[in-house]
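Feature request disguised as a bug report, sorry. It would help if multi-protein outputs had a clear separator. Right now it looks like this:
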Amino acid sequence: MNADETSLADLVRQVHRNYPTGVTVITTMHEGVPYGLACNAFASVSLAPPMVLFCVNQSTQTHRHLRKNSAVGINVLASDQAALAEVFAHSGADKFAQTSWHLGERGVPLVSEAAANFEATIVDTLDAGTHTVFIAQISTATKRDVEPLLYLHGSYLKPANATLA
């Protein structure tokens, strides 16, 4: 990477840190073992049929298992789950040993007490640089009436701490 590319990468990273996002935990099951990671690159794609996308770094252990399995859980974390987000933001260790979770109807791990849980089927992928964009069709959805966890400036925020325009 040359100096101009490094500068551009740093600038893009700074812009992204200033863009607020929600925090999700993407989960899957492989050979009876749950896998998951924190993900803030998540968005709605369509309501008919209901589809979402999420982006995962190709170097993660969970990425390999998402490529092998089409069933996926998408857990929108609640504002009081920042510590859980940190668990899933780091590789290694048994993340699920530190997590209250249950199996969904499709056999994927779902985080208990999340603001929302989706079960979905991966229907398409697109390799994009260091990441893969996964497009998934939602088959089940649940939600609780709680505030979601936000991420901004490298920190987790509760919506009550965010300033509305």
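(second protein starts here, but nothing in the output says so)
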Amino acid sequence: MSKDAGLAHLDAYLAQVQRHVRGLPHAEAREVVAELRAHVLDKVEGGVSPAAVEAAIAELGSPREIARANITERIVARAEADRSPLPVLGGVVRLARLSVYGAFAFLVSFAGYGLAAAFLATALMKPFAWDRTGLWFKMTGPNNYDMSWMLGATDSPRSGHELLGGWIIPIGLAAALVLGWLTWRFDLFSLRLMGRRARRPR
């Protein structure tokens, strides 16, 4: 009877974990639950009482915590296996909702790739809209105290001063490449950091 009660307690815990790992493919979610079940049963070594099961699952953490750790580890593993920018960025996007640092990493990635894309688009557009595309600087306000910057194309080129001229093409291409590379490296670092935190003993 005690064994049945212990197994029921374990099944209730694993059912909660199952709900929290819905972000994983179904086969992976089932694998997580099966591994946790085997881990707990090994821990209690045949004495499947409610107290023994409770002690074993207390070491694992709450269902939400253990699900988050497993999701993080698997997303990081996939990104490490395919280190190209798109899968790495996809991993950061998926982890953005799981932690404050994940959200921060997503915002940095969005800004980095967004600025890289802006430099690239400006460099490619410059030959076709020479007088309307570039890095623009403008002084505004009653005493010209307010400064504003704009990268890209404008409908009113005379309202600002274009700083780089044709140099925006090589500079824009180089800036896009460097920013894209730095953002990709930051994403890899962030994924590894979140993976290490997920594997940290509780």
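Even a blank line would do. Unrelated, but nice: DSSP finds seven helices and three strands in the chain.
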